[in-house]
Amino acid sequence: MKKIGVLTSGGDAPGMNAAIRSVVRMALSNDIEVLAIRKGYMGLLNGLFQEMDARSVSDILHRGGTILQSSRCAEFREEAGVRKGVEMARKAGLEGIVVIGGDGSFRGARDLSLMGLPTIGIPATIDNDIACTELTIGFDTALETVKDALDKIRDTAQSHERCSVFEVMGRGAGYIAAYVAIACGAEAAIIPEMPFDFEQDIIKPIMDGKKRGKENNLIVVAEGVGGSVELAERIEKATGVETRATILGHIQRGGSPTVNDRMLASRMGIHAVKLLKNGIGNRTVAIKNNEIVDYDILEGLSMKKQMPEEIMKMAKILSL
Fold this sequence. Notes:
alpha/beta, about 325 residues, about 45% helix, 7-stranded mixed beta sheet, about 20% strand, elongated
């Protein structure tokens, strides 16, 4: 291939810029021209193209978000929209596209591939909910952000002998909630993947801790479960312990990416360009056992990611 495009789509994630940088510089080093496609699939449909050189991606490695911006595009969910996207890409001389984003972005990449435009997906989402990869770009940075916030909440809970219900992102996946619950010593992690019993999983640990002299409690809830304010009210009524709810929100998406996310993004970007250089499309990049691999994009989307039972067992043991 002599000319490729790169876009970011869906929710932003720290490390997207590192992936963009990697794609652009790897392509240029192989005499492949690169067009940045601004504002995701909406930009593809509207021809928001920008020629990139090595300087275009200078000083972006440390920045959160995405310099290419992102947007939702209802039109691209329809066959006519995808067809128009392929036509716009062909008019610009693009022979392939690298799509950086989450599962919704990958469905768009799949549709482009099925219409004959070779597309490579790079998984970037703080939720870590792409099944074919052990880690997604942005997950590690989000964990650090949430960990810092939880430690601060714990300070206040300790000072006032409170219980804190802390809601984190994760609409369909509880990886952030489960990991930070362990890392921050929470009494419980309430996640979409596992049903919970209010009395056994929340009230009992709080009351048992109170008997041992514990002066504060922390319950972490994934947004896919939600209802944090109501849950806090139920806990206070059942235990007599003052309970407050905190919803962390979009602060989890921002911030300078960690070294791990920068490295992961850089490795995945290089691999994506290697695939296109060799005429290989319709793949999604992934990491498995610390090796960068790739899967057929349809196969990757069909995989189901499950929360390791070990993680939940660990959370319960360490919360005692």
